[in-house]
Amino acid sequence: MHPESAAGNAARVGEQVPAFELTDLDGRVWTAADFSGQPTVLFCFASWCTCKEQLPSWHKYWDSRGRDFQMVAGILDAKGEETARPTVEASGAEFPVLLDPTSSLGAKFGSQLVPFGAFIDADGVVVFTDLSGTFEIGDPRVRVNVDRFLAGEELEQAEQGQAMDPQALELFADGVIAYQAGDRDAALTLWREGLAIDPDNFIIRSQIWTLENPEHFWPEVDRAWQEQQLAAEGYDKPLP
Asked: Distance between CA 96 and CA 124 in Å, rounded?
């Protein structure tokens, strides 16, 4: 089993950032130790999600404060740098963006939706997580909480989403490995197996869609098509 898929390992408020190792778009390797020394805001998104449109807003907020905190993003794209780099470059964001093709941060923080985020204090302790799929700086509730976090004030904890099923996450990670090795069919098979176990997991579902129907995700994300696709697949819950 992949270490990141072990049940019960999701980061909890009041605990240290769990161990991880990811590389950013500049080639720098990041670990949990890099999330200490100063307050950090983590924003996780994907190129296939409309939440990518929040990157310029996060950059503007970071700039407006004189970059007095560490702003870090994670991009959960199975295609890795292929889709991550043009997405980030188009946004103009200058803060570090970590490449996370296997959604290890989703596992570490217990989220099956994007966007999600966390606030980490200067001691590397998680003080806030938002796994609801609505962690966007354009949301006044998020903006107020970021301001409070950076001012050292009490936070209003967000409503949390459902954590990824560990077996589904393991299958997803195996699928990413297969995709990166050039075996598209094996990747899709593994992802479909994972989705069958965890049908509410939109990180997995969206990766399947983007591989089979990229024209509905780049350069623009077509939510109307996604809603139609959900109905065709017999999924009876709304698109997040």
From this structure: 17
For the chain, the C-alpha Rg in angstroms (whole number) is 17
* Distances from the Cα of 196 to the Cα of 89, 149, 162, 230, angstroms: 35, 38, 16, 14
* Chain centre distance of CA 9: 17
d(CA 109, CA 10): 5
Q: 6-150 has which CATH code?
A: 3.40.30.10
Q: Return the beta strands (E) in 46-182 as ranges.
A: 70-75, 97-99, 116-120, 126-130
pLDDT in tens, 135-190: 999 999 899 999 999 999 999 887 666 777 889 989 999 999 999 999 999 999 99
Q: Identify whether the C-beta of residue 211 lies closer than 8 Å to the C-beta of residue 204.
A: no
